[in-house]
Amino acid sequence: MPATIAVRVQSEDFDVAAEIADLSRGRTDIGAVVTFSGLCRDEAGTLAALELEHYAGMAEREITAIAEEAARRWPLSAASAIHRFGMIRPGENIVLVVTASAHRQAAFDAANFLMDYLKSRAPFWKKEHRVDGRVGDWVSAKDSDDAAAERWRR
Amino acid sequence: MKLVYFAWVRERIGHSDEEVDLPAEVTTVRELLGFLRARGDGYAQALQYPEHIRVAIDHEHVDHDQRIGTGREIALFPPMTGG
Predict the structure, then answer these.
(1) Do A134 and A46 form a contact (C-beta atoms < 8 A)?
(2) 20 to 30 A Cα–Cα from A150, which one of A37, A62, B18, B24?
(3) Cα distance from A58 to chain B (closest Cα, Å)?
(4) Is B23 on the interface with A (CB under 8 A)?
(5) What's the pLDDT tens digit per position in B3-40?
(6) Nearest by CB: B59 against A52, A58, A127
(7) What is the percent of chain A where pLDDT is above 70?
(8) Does A126 sit within 8 Å of B81, measured CB to CB?
(9) What distance in Å separates the CA atoms of residue A144 and residue B36, rounded to the nearest whole number?
């Protein structure tokens, strides 16, 4: 059975427990669920918010393509991804990846792969808003993130 | 051709999208970046280091050698920082 893939790009927050429940409801084939949530941190008290800009249309399409690639590489039962946009304050959710499989290793690896690819290929950009009122810089892409995505190449 | 810009590329160019008539000799992404760089200071500033510019044609990532072909929407943006 092909993996059930669900991708959402939204400004609203999400409920991690509800997303896990949605993904596994009514199914008895799933033996492992892995979740990753990415949160906004306050950078030692200096950051008031992150402003997430995205390319509507391409963002959904690209994350879906990455999830489909994960489902080709690992025997997944389901994969969900949610990415927020707009103003996000420290402590709030930014991104969620949930993967489900019969066994844990596929779920762990697929979640890791999804996040690595999402960071370097999904069209989102973060701008910092500082506590001192200054609109700060665009967050720079990290070489380490590219390297993380690169290790999955084949 | 519709061009769309994001993040600091958008800020430096000064608008988020525009319709541009491309001259016949602009056939690849690299040539498009060169053509745009000559359109004014904002463009020159945004596209000063073309190796840092990521490009998508009709919502698909492409490299700078890609031919523009019949693409309808070309997006220019910095390396992505989501997740």
Answers:
(1) no
(2) A37
(3) 5
(4) no
(5) 999 999 999 999 999 999 999 999 999 999 999 999 99
(6) A58
(7) 100
(8) yes
(9) 31
Look up the CATH number of the domain holding residue B35.
Answer: 3.10.20.30
Structural domain boundaries enclosing B12? 2-77
- Cα gap B28→B68, rounded to integer Å: 5
> Which residue shows structure tokens 């199914």?
A27
> Contact, B10 vs B81, CB < 8 A?
no
Which residue shows structure tokens 């370097």? A120
Arithmetic mean of pLDDT over chain B: 97
Amino acid at B40: G
- The reply to whether B83 falls in a domain is no
Residues B31, B67: Cα–Cα separation, whole Å: 9
Tokens (6 digits) for A85: 């946009």
Tell me the residue ranges of DSSP E strands in A40-123.
Answer: 47-54, 76-84, 86-88, 93-101
